[in-house]
Amino acid sequence: MSGRVEAALAERGLTLPQVVPPLAAYQPAVRSGVYVYTAGQLPMVDGKLPVTGKVGAEVTPEEAKDLARVCALNALAAVKSVAGDLDRVARVVKVVGFIASAPDFTGQPAVLNGASELLGEVLGEAGVHARSAVGVAVLPLDAPVEVELQVELLPEA
Question: pTM above the 0.85 mark?
Fold first, then answer.
């Protein structure tokens, strides 16, 4: 373990997972200058989705909020894979969340709070961000939630 961000994760009983391997032709994260852009991260745990289906139908909003936390944790692992150290995160600039939703489900912002709250807990002020919570018909592998991050890094010393 290294640094204050991973210590904050450990205080919450969390560890940074291995980066989820790509499911298609893309990279989990890319760096451009001081910015890191992650691919959409599914709530994979040990290589599997713990739950599938639509939020508001097969998946409860509370379950989906927990899954959004898992997505954010996977996204942080992807950031670390190209930044080297999460303590280099100057701020999370934007979070985009996609929520596979039943036709009458309108609670997408509350679901995405799972990711936003985790980022705030472990990054403090650097975790405060702009975001979009988008309801969609279906996600890869029938995942209920997908989250991507745009992160600014501190300049290298």
Answer: yes
